[in-house]
Amino acid sequence: MNKDILIKFEKKMVLLWIIFAVVLLIFELLTQSVWALCLSIGCVGGIITALLGVPIVWESVIVGLVSMIALCFIMPQIKIWLRRHADAKGGEARTGMDALLGRRCIVTQEIKPGMMGRVQIDGDSWQAVTNMSDTIIRRGAEAIVIAYNSIIITVTPYNS
Asked: What is the pLDDT of residues 109-118, one digit of tens each?
């Protein structure tokens, strides 16, 4: 009887580690925080140890250790990738909103001085204003992102 209870508990732990791993992977995809990926990899260690019938205390220890090992190996690789990416772009690697600076965009809604319009960058639509006090940027024109304030970007006309 006790063996049946133990087997049911082990199956529940496997399911729990799978759920944690999937939730952390989704979180990683949404935030690109790296630590969530490492914790997800740690949960895979928990899945393996649960399948082997290791006690829950050791499962947790294994999850922590595998997560730390993953962090120690993945972070240096990400730093190398960012450095290579920065070298290819001829400067510093930028992420988040900073990555938009200097990018070309297409105006999808006319931008008048003092008024907001919209631009599109890589398929994403952004609210935009211009820094020019006397220039209207027409729909379909190209512009360059020069600054941002929260989620509103500032653009200037692109002169090819």
From this structure: 999 988 999 9
